[in-house]
Structures are given as structure tokens and as C-alpha cells.
Amino acid sequence: MATTEGATGSVARTTRKAAKGSSKSVGASHAGALTPYLFMAPYLILFAIFVLAPLVSALWISLHNWDYLLPGKPFTGLDNYTDLFSGTGTAGLFWQSMSATAQFTLYSVPPLVLLPLGVAIVLNQKIPGQKVFRAIYFAPYVLGVAVVGILWRYLLDPSVGLINYYLGRIGFSGDLPWTNGLPWAWIGLVGATVWWTLGFNTIIYLAGLQGIPRDLYEAARVDGANNWQAFRNVTLPQLRPVILFVTTVTVLASANVFGQSYLITQGAPGGDTRTAIMYITDEGLGRFRMGSAAAMSIILAAALAIIGALNFRFLGRGDDY
């Protein structure tokens, strides 16, 4: 009898221990499921504060006739949007600035995607002074846009600029209108931007190149591939995610250009190089039409979102991104 009771108690204790272990396992499983969200929480909090909240605020302001100096801000619905698409008011100037932004993006993105790739391939080779050249190419990127704008404003000045001076010394006659004539203004803006930001894209490409396994190149050599074939069949496929990242970031940065145009050309000639951000700033902070400026910002953001999605569609693969 005592033996039976002892066995029953042992079974009960074993059952309780198993139940406790099971509950601990379930608790650990729940904790493990929450772990990724805990790591993501700092970013999500910052995203909500600095991206999501301003976006919601901009949407709300765009639905009003919003003059921040006046107490009354009447609700206008979608009038600010319909005005932009109906051609009334300042719609023509806004779409001119959008066209200027598109032109700058079209002119600047190809050299900022291709030139850094070539520089990175060269700097990835074992050459004397490799680290020094890497530092030289990256150095301009640490400068602020104000420094870059003032520097290139002086260099490109049609009257006293150093570029026209040295062009004259080597035989070119006449002062080229780098800051107030087309197409020279676009050439000057794109050239200054490429000089300034080329180093950043180069470093990104260089990191991608150094992550490619050397075994792939050795296998290509064994198969008889020359340099071009190794680049086309090994380097480019392996750099696909890096190229996607560089292209996307460059497109977004070029479409948000402000400082270069504001400081170098000041929108000249005749507003042809006045970008969308410049016009939105003038509309909101210069003429106190924050509702209209917010609507313009939403349209610009929507256009960039579409471009980014298309970029991922054509450069990325659905199973990778």
C-alpha cells in the first residue's frame, strides 16, 4: 500500500515538473517571438517620430488653406491638389520645377552609378598608394552642401571663375555661362554633384567588390574567361544588390536636390534650374502658402515612391528583395 502511494506521488511530482517545464517552454517561445521586434523598436520609434508623423502632418496641412501666421486655417479638401492639376495659380511654375528636377536626375544618375563603379574596380586592385587614393576620392563627400555650393559658385562664375580663366589660357575664347545659361548650367550642376558625391558610391561599390568570393574568379579563369567575361558573368551578378542600392539612393538624392541649385545657379536662367524642393520652399516659407506647398511635397513624394518601386521591379528580383 505504501509502495503504491509512493509511486502515485512520484508520478504526480513528475507530471507537475513536466507541466512547469512546458509552461516555461511556451513562455520562452513567446519571448523569442518578441525578440526581433525589440531589436526593431528603436528604429520604428524614430521612424514614427521623424517620418510617419511629419507625413501625416503634411497630409493634414495639404487639405487646408494653411498660413501659419494667421489663426484661421480653413479646410479646403482637395483644392490644393486640383489646383496643381488644373493649371490654375502657380501650377505651371511647380511643374516647371518638377521638370527641372527630372532633368537633373536624368543627367546626374548615370554618371553617379557608372563612374564610381569604374573607380571602385580600379581601387580594388593592388596598386601603389591604394589607401591614399581611396581617401582622396572620398574626401569631398565629407564637405557640407554650403561649402560645395560656394566653392563651385566661385569656380563656375562666368566673369571671375577659375574654370573660364584656365579655359581661356589654353585657347578657348569667350566666357562660358556656367551659372546662367543652358546647357552650361546643367553641366556645372551635374559636374559639381558628381565631384561631391562620387566618393560615397565608390566606397559602397568597393565594399561589394571585396565581398565577392575569389573562388568565382578563379573558376572563371579556369574556364577560359577573359577580364570582360569575368566582369560580366561574375562581378555584375554578384554586385546586383549593391547596384540596386546605389541606384535607388542616387535617384532619391538627385530628385531631392536643393543646395547645389540654390547656391550655384540660384535657379537661373529664368527658373530653368529651379528644382522642386526650391520651389516648394519658396511657396511655403516665402509666400506662406503651406497648404499648397504640402500638396506639392506629397506629389513629389508619391512620384519618388513610384520611381523607387519601378527601380526594385527592374533591377531587383522578387526572390531576393
Structure, briefly:
With 321 residues, the protein is an all-alpha fold. It contains 13 helices and no strands. The chain has helices at 2-62, 79-86, 91-123, 130-138, 145-156, 162-169, 184-210, 214-222, 227-238, 240-255, 259-265, 276-286, 290-315.
Care to describe what's here?
The protein has 321 residues and is mainly alpha-helical. The chain has two domains: 1-46; 89-315, Orthogonal Bundle (MetI-like fold). Helix content is 74%, strand content 0%. The protein has 13 helices and no strands. The protein has helices at 2-62, 79-86, 91-123, 130-138, 145-156, 162-169, 184-210, 214-222, 227-238, 240-255, 259-265, 276-286, 290-315. α4 (130-138) packs across α7 (184-210). It is globular, with a radius of gyration of 29 Å.
Structure summary, number of beta strands: 0
CATH homologous superfamily heading of the largest domain:
MetI-like
Spatial shape: globular
* Strand-residue proportion: under 5%
* Tally of structural domains: 2
Which structural class matches the secondary elements? mainly alpha
Q: What is the architecture of the largest domain at the second tier of CATH?
A: Orthogonal Bundle
The radius of gyration computed from the alpha-carbon positions, rounded to a whole number of angstroms, is 29 Å
Q: Tell me the series of helices and strands, N- to C-terminal.
A: HHHHHHHHHHHHH
Biggest β-sheet: count, sense, barrel? none
Can you tell me the residue ranges where pLDDT is under 50 for at least 5 consecutive residues? Answer: 1-5
